[in-house]
Amino acid sequence: MKRASWLALAVIVAQGAVSMAHADGWGPTAASNNPADGIAGTRHNMSMSYLTPANRATMRIRRNDYGEVCVYCHTPHGANNSAGGLGMPLWNRTVNMTLDYELYNIPTTLGLAGEQAVTHPGPASLTCLSCHDGVTAIDSIINMPGSGMYMQSQEESVDMGFLATWSTDTLEHMSLAGCTLCHNAPSGASPGDFTNFVIGGVLNSEATDISFKFDLDSSVVDLRDDHPVGVRYPTALTSQAWVDFEQMNVEIPGRYAFFDDGNGRADKHEIRVYDSGDGGFEVECASCHDPHGVPNAANDEFIPSFLRVSNESSALCLACHIK
Ligand code: HEC
Ligand code: HEC
Ligand code: HEC
Ligand code: HEC
Ligand code: HEC
Predict the structure, then answer these.
(1) CA atoms of 142 and 130, how far apart (whole Å)
(2) Ligand 4 centroid to residue 250 C-alpha, Å
(3) In a 10 Å sphere around its CB, with 0-12 CB exposed, 13-18 middle and 19+ buried, how is residue 37 labelled?
(4) Residue 190 CA: which ligand 3 atom is closest?
(5) Which is it for the CA torsion 41, 42, 43, 46, positive or negative?
(6) Among 73, 170, 91, which residue's Cα sits nearest to residue 161?
(7) What spacing in Å lies between the alpha carbon of 254 and ligand 5's midpoint?
(8) What is d(CA 130, CA 231) in angstroms, rounded to the nearest whole number?
(9) Could you tell me the mean pLDDT of each successive run of 10 residues in the chain, 323 residues long?
(10) What sign results for the dihedral spanned by CA atoms 60, 66, 70, 73?
(11) Which of 116, 170, 174, 315 holds its CA 20 to 30 A away from the CA of 108?
């Protein structure tokens, strides 16, 4: 099925230049991966201003082209103020609170049980999951650019009618799983493979085969095959033993704890754990990733996969785990 839809596309794709993939998947026709360009030079530039006009027109059919980088995630006014949106930075996206996240929940290292170990993903994960769970439309925001383009109900549910008021060019408002209908081409081929960018996929509770992902009728997102999020990190706050974990040297209750290099601030290259009110600091998506990109030491490329610390020689893992 997927293969066939990719083949059907081959004709369209053959007309465009075939891009050479960058080592981490970024190609010269996509974002530049150059820190000098900021987030606009990364895959999180959903405005796709870097695409050729022809490719931009193709993409405009699948999601609203707001012509701005930040607006797909943030808004200066009218940000998500719902229970789900609290604790997120001026968040402009729909946070679907009807979704349940099934987490890896057999933690052995700390030997904690129940809520002591794993809770619901916190705000610093739900931000990412508002796209990467593969369910919510990439362009589903509360406050579109321009005056009078605000809809409060967008905070918790997607209103296709509202999204359609942006442009008649856009025929469908696709989720990340939707994008993979075309973006499932074999490695190195056009238009690229986004399948691995869908973190979780949706668990079809009826199906015996849980590899059947992207069931949009289900309300359970399966994160059991991902590094746990909403999982407790040992800190002084919870007086746990640092069994097998490095001790973070700054802890700010109500916010986060992090490995500080001496300036007392959580810099973007510093791994952190978040206090989202569950009684301790927890690992979330943004513990390991910065969605705006983090420059490498030479400052000439972003670290691949939006990581805060390059995972070469497992450095990211070893920053927390003593192994
Ligand atoms: C793909 C989504 C996305 C886009 C696009 C985006 N941001 Fe963010 N931004 C986030 C997330 C997620 C956080 C919270 C990170 C965390 O939990 O620590 C954040 C946090 C921030 C913060 C708080 C400080 C920090 O870095 O944590 C600022 C300021 C910010 N963003 C500004 C911007 C600006 C300005 C733009 C556009 C040039 C932008 N962002 C584009 C997702 C995005
Ligand atoms: C507005 C939707 C949106 C939000 C919010 C968002 N992402 Fe993404 N992300 C995408 C899309 C779309 C792609 C890939 C497709 C592309 O190239 O445009 C992507 C790609 C990625 C990639 C792959 C990068 C690469 O080059 O291999 C990583 C890693 C990633 N996102 C992590 C995150 C994390 C972590 C967060 C939260 C801190 C986040 N994203 C928030 C939409 C989003
Ligand atoms: C109907 C098929 C189709 C769908 C659906 C689709 N795309 Fe594309 N996309 C293409 C084609 C074709 C290209 C051009 C590929 C090339 O030139 O290599 C492309 C190129 C891109 C590029 C630049 C090249 C790259 O791989 O980084 C991005 C980013 C992108 N699409 C994002 C998205 C996002 C996000 C969605 C979902 C909201 C999406 N696309 C849905 C067909 C599609
Ligand atoms: C403990 C650290 C850690 C946490 C927490 C984490 N990630 Fe990642 N993530 C990584 C590493 C390391 C990679 C790079 C893997 C690779 O290169 O194959 C990655 C890769 C990715 C990718 C790109 C996948 C690909 O194959 O290119 C996406 C998208 C992503 N993460 C999103 C998320 C989201 C969403 C969350 C929260 C639900 C999350 N991550 C939580 C460490 C983490
Ligand atoms: C921000 C700190 C942090 C980073 C970075 C990190 N982890 Fe973890 N990891 C944790 C915590 C906390 C747990 C939960 C342990 C528990 O509750 O017993 C965990 C759990 C695990 C588990 C399950 C262990 C168990 O006890 O069930 C594995 C395996 C694991 N991590 C591997 C990795 C790998 C591989 C990387 C690098 C890609 C990584 N981790 C990066 C903090 C981190």
Answers:
(1) 13
(2) 24
(3) middle
(4) 18
(5) negative
(6) 170
(7) 22
(8) 19
(9) 35 36 46 83 87 88 95 97 88 87 76 75 93 90 96 94 96 89 81 84 45 49 86 81 85 95 96 92 96 92 93 96 93
(10) negative
(11) 315
